[in-house]
Amino acid sequence: MMIDRLRKSYHEFPRSFWVLAGSGFIDRLGATLIFPFFSLYITQKFDVGMTQAGVLLAIFSVTGLAGNMIGGALTDRFGRRALVLFGLVISALSSVLMGLVDDLSVFYVLAGFVGLLSDLGGPARQAMVADLLPEEQRSEGFGIMRVAGNMAWIIGPTIGGLLAARSYLLLFVLDAISSIIVAIILYLAVPETMPERDGEAEDPNLLETVRGYRLVGRDRLFIVFVMTTMLMSVVYLQMYSTLSVYLRDVHGIPARGFGALLSMNAATVVLLQFWVTRRVRPYPQMLVMALGTALYLVGFTAYGFVSSYLLFAIAMLVITFGEMLIIPVGQALAARFAPGTMRGRYMAVFALSWAIPNTVGPYAAGLIMDHYDPRWVWYASGILCSLAALGYLLLHRRTRARFEETEPVREAFGESQP
User: Fold this and answer.
1) 72 or 95, which is more confident?
2) How many CB atoms lie within 10 A of CB 415?
3) Which candidate, 282, 259, 298, places its Cα nearest to that of 153?
4) Are residues 406 and 262 in the same domain?
C-alpha cells in the first residue's frame, strides 16, 4: 500500500529529493546497527556500569548541541551540500575510531569530538529538504524522510543484534561504510540547494553569519514555537528512556514486550505516515500540532492509569498517530518561519526543542521514578501536553497573518524558489 502511494506520487517530488530520502535510509540503516546496542557495547568492552555509559551519552548530547548550532551558521554561509558531506565523512571516521579505542578515558575525549563534528551536517540536511520542496509539499516531504528512517529502524536492529554476537567492531565498520556510500551518492546526484542571495547583497563573512543567530532570537513567535515544542518533546522522549523501565518495574513487562511496542510504532509509521501527512495538508499547521499534542496527552497519560498489555499497545498507537502529525509538520513549520538564506540557523535552533529535552527530560523522570509514585511521570506528561496544546492554539492565532504574508517575506530576503 505504502509503495503504491509512493510510486503514484514519485513525479510530484523532484529527483534530488528522492535521492536524499533514499540515501537517508542507507545512512540511518548504518546508525541503527549500532545505536540500540551502544550501551551494551560500552558496559561489556570496558567492564563498567550504566553510569559511565550515561556519561558518554551525555557528552554526545551536550557537544552535539554545540555542533548543531555551529553547523546551522556554516550551512547558511557555505551551503548545505558541503556541510552534509563533511558530516558524513566525519561520521565514517568516528565510527571506525569508536570501534578501535580500548581506553575508556580516550573514549570520553573522542565522544566530545564526535558529538561536535558529526552533528554539523544536521541543520544542512533539514534545510536541504526545505530548499528542494515548495511550502505546500514540505510536510509530506519530511514525512517521507521519516518513513525512510523508520524502515531502517525495522531492519537495522535485527541485523545488528545478529552481528553484535560475533563482533561489535563489524557494526562500526558497516556504519562507516554506509556513511561513505551516502556521501558518494549525494556528491554525484544532489547539487547545492541553498537559495541565491539578492544580487546586490554581499555575502556575509562567517562572524556575521554566526551573529545572525541574534536575528533568530528576535523572532519572538518562532522562539515561542520552539519553547512550546520543548514542552511536548519532554513528554515524547519518555518513550525512549523512561517507558521501558516503568513497564518493567511497575507492570513486569519484559524487554521483548517493550521492543514489540516500538516495532509496532515503527511499522505503523512506515505504513501510514505518507497517508496521514497528505490528509492533513489542507489544515492549518499549528492546529495539526495542537491535535497531535492532544493525542500525546491521551496516549502518555494512559500509562498512568491502565495495566494490561493490550491497553499499553492501544496507548502506543494513539502516540504513534500523534507523532505522525507532529514531527513532519513541526519540521515544515520551522522551515516556514525562516527566510531561505537563514534556514540553516532556524533549523539549528529548532533542533534545540528536541536536544534540550533529551538532556533534561530523562533525568527529571528518573527523579520521579526513584523518589515518588512512578505514575506521576505520566500525570506530569499530561499536564505538559495540555500546556503545549494550548500554546499551539495561541500560536495559530498569532501566526496566521505572518504566514499569509509568506511570499512578501521571501521577496524581502531575496529568496528564490527551486
Assistant:
1) 95
2) 21
3) 259
4) yes
